[in-house]
Specification:
Blueprint lengths: L9 E3 L7 H7 L6 H17 L1 H12 L12 H10 L2 H21 L4 E4 L5 E8 L2 E5 L8 H14 L3 E5 L10 H9 L4 E3 L3 H10 L9 E3 L4 H9 L5 E2 L7 E6 L5 H12 L7 E6 L2 H14 L6 H9 L3 E5 L3 H11 L3 E5 L15 E4 L5 H6 L25 E8 L2 H18 L2 H8 L29
Parallel strand pairs: 1-11, 4-5, 4-7, 5-6, 7-8, 9-10, 9-12, 10-11, 12-13
Antiparallel strand pairs: 2-3, 3-14
């Protein structure tokens, strides 16, 4: 490896002066236009031809020749995965599942109701979705943790049918860790395919496979584009593409720890990951740069990290103050944000748009990826300005409930009449009036207009 290529320059940012380097880094696309073109072609084929199109895409893109009977992962493979894994690995997967499940249970919104002034009831009802699809990346790394961070939430929500898709290896196998996690989370219907074709299968359904109501889970640019294109056919969670991390730190922190955390997201493998470090000390920023250069050659995925560096995916920024640094973080809207400063509670209320915040030096982002409890499926590409991370509520359907008494409707009638008149919707007005005056129809003219009724008059009672 060329060590000189690892030396990252520290950029000094002094507002109100603009930094072109910073602006270029911040303006990463939420969606890849080229990926959308490819995704549209494959999805259209799947929508038209179904199963043959899915198998053709797997063969052409993944270079795996699957027969129709091989598409679904068998129960025997799930059982074999249990036997293939050591007890220690299975225990750690179960512990992660328990932590995520506990967080999900505590965050579930209960059904609730309130009384109206006149004895009626208003409220919200929540019920699980019937059938959801979980996408589990596996092309560059077998993300068993994503099974836990998605399907566990669906399981806690009470979803009866959880479908999963994950790419297989060239020999058609799926890693036992992924299969064990799937079974633990209640998944009994899983398919050994990934990418655009997996999104198409779940969205449109194929022979013997019903479509899902909603698709969740992270993925590369092609998966993200495919999810966007099937929106409306199915519901979606959020924009969750290539991984991102931002760290705001002062010089009281350990530069080796910061370097490790920055590289933890750069190693994912797509080459489009983003790692941003901001500090109010230029000498400290240089120490972090040196620590990164020292660490990369020792990494098993150093080639993937170098691809991120070549794509300008790691930026070290020195700013005048922590407050200025936080303003940059809020513009970036990172998937993951580590707040590593003295007295972090002072700044925490001012964090506006990050998918998740990791507070203090003892909270590396990898704790959130694998163990903490909240889902690691988080918005990327700036979508943190608009989207939240995945929660148990993403697997539930909310229904508002209104139960009026006669007096409730009587009190609301002037409002109904006024807005009906404003919007020219006499049928809306009539729906209220008719309940109190069966003879009110005679007051409606042939043109549908109310014949001079005072919109504030109280209804007549029978």
């Amino acid at each position: 490896m060329n060590m000189s290529a690892v030396n990252l320059r520290v950029v000094c940012y002094r507002p109100p002066r603009r930094s072109r380097t910073l602006e270029v880094f911040l303006k990463r696309p939420t969606f890849d236009s080229k990926a959308q073109v490819v995704a549209q072609e494959i999805l259209s084929d799947i929508a038209h031809r179904g199963l043959p199109a899915v198998l053709a895409a797997v063969s052409r893109i993944d270079k795996v020749s699957l027969r129709a009977t091989e598409l679904r992962i068998s129960e025997r493979e799930f059982e074999a995965a249990d036997s293939a894994l050591g007890e220690e690995v299975k225990a750690r997967i179960r512990e992660a599942h328990d932590r995520v499940a506990e967080f999900a249970r505590k965050s579930m919104r209960p059904n609730w109701s309130m009384k109206t002034p006149n004895g009626g009831v208003l409220g919200e009802l929540f019920r699980p979705l019937e059938r959801v699809g979980v996408y589990v990346p596996g092309g560059t790394a077998p993300l068993a943790s994503t099974v836990i961070m998605t399907a566990t939430l669906a399981q806690v929500a009470g979803v009866p049918e959880i479908v999963a898709c994950t790419p297989c290896a060239k020999d058609k196998t799926v890693r036992p860790e992924i299969l064990y996690a799937m079974k633990l989370c209640g998944i009994r219907e899983a398919y050994r395919i990934g990418g655009i074709q997996a999104i198409g299968l779940m969205a449109y359904g194929i022979r013997h496979t019903e479509p899902v109501q909603k698709i969740v889970g992270p993925g590369n640019a092609f998966v993200t584009a495919a999810k966007q294109l099937v929106y409306g056919t199915v519901a979606l969670d959020l924009v969750a593409g290539p991984s991102e991390i931002a760290i705001l730190a002062d010089d009281s922190m350990n530069p080796d720890w910061i370097a490790a955390d920055l590289l933890s997201q750069a190693e994912h493998g797509s080459g489009f990951e983003r790692s941003l470090f901001i500090t109010d000390s230029e000498p400290f920023a240089q120490k972090v740069s040196d620590a990164i250069a020292k660490r990369i050659p020792k990494m098993s995925r150093k080639d993937k990290v170098m691809k991120v560096i070549e794509n300008f995916g790691i930026l070290l920024l020195a700013v005048p103050s922590i407050e200025v640094g936080l303003s940059v973080i809020n513009r970036f809207a990172p998937e993951h944000f580590e707040l590593m400063v003295k007295d972090p509670e002072r700044y925490l209320p001012h964090v506006k748009s990050s998918g998740a915040v990791f507070v203090g030096p003892w909270t590396p982002e990898s704790a959130g990826d694998f163990a903490a409890g909240p889902s690691h499926v988080l918005p990327t590409g700036g979508a943190g300005h608009m989207f939240n991370g995945l929660t148990v509520e993403d697997f539930r359907h909310r229904t508002s409930m209104v139960q009026y008494t006669e007096k409730d409707l009587s009190d609301a009638l002037p409002i109904i009449r006024t807005f009906s008149d404003i919007e020219g919707l006499d049928g809306h007005r009539w729906a209220g009036d008719v309940r109190f005056n069966q003879g009110a129809e005679s007051a409606i003219g042939e043109d549908g207009a109310d014949a001079g009724r005072d919109s504030d008059a109280q209804p007549e009672r029978n």
